[in-house]
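Lab intake sheet, docking and co-folding queue.

SAMPLE TYPE: protein with bound small molecule
LIGAND NAME: zinc ion
LIGAND FORMAT: SMILES
REQUESTED OUTPUT: full 3D complex as structure tokens
PRIORITY: normal
SUBMITTED BY: R.K., bench team

The fields below were copied directly from the construct record.
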Amino acid sequence: MNNDRLEHFRDILNSTLEGLLQDAERTVSGMNRTTDEHFPDPTDRASHETDRNFVLRVKDRERKLVAKVKDALKRIEDGTYGICEECGEPISEKRLAVRPVTTCCVECKKEEEELERQRGA
Ligand SMILES: [Zn+2]
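RESULT FIELD (auto-filled):
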């Protein structure tokens, strides 16, 4: 992939990362605010717990995505970005445009999904 394209994907990944970190900050400050409140009514307390679990689930997903985005940025640095981890072939830019953090090409992804289906996952 030429440098212009790499820069293009670096921009996308950087702004994705920025957005994720901003969201994470907002979530954390939101959590701190609600934990300070008192819930004398058990029903309120229950729904508060559900909210909290939801927030934690979202945060977990965000954390994983942040790690993926950072990995992708590292691959841009060391020159392996856009190359399939499985077969070493270039990943199509169309696929990267849809999923900039992807590490394998469409063919390998299909194979992987096929294997998962066979295993009944
Ligand atoms: Zn591949």
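REVIEWER NOTE: The mean pLDDT is 87.
SIGN-OFF: pending second check by T.M.
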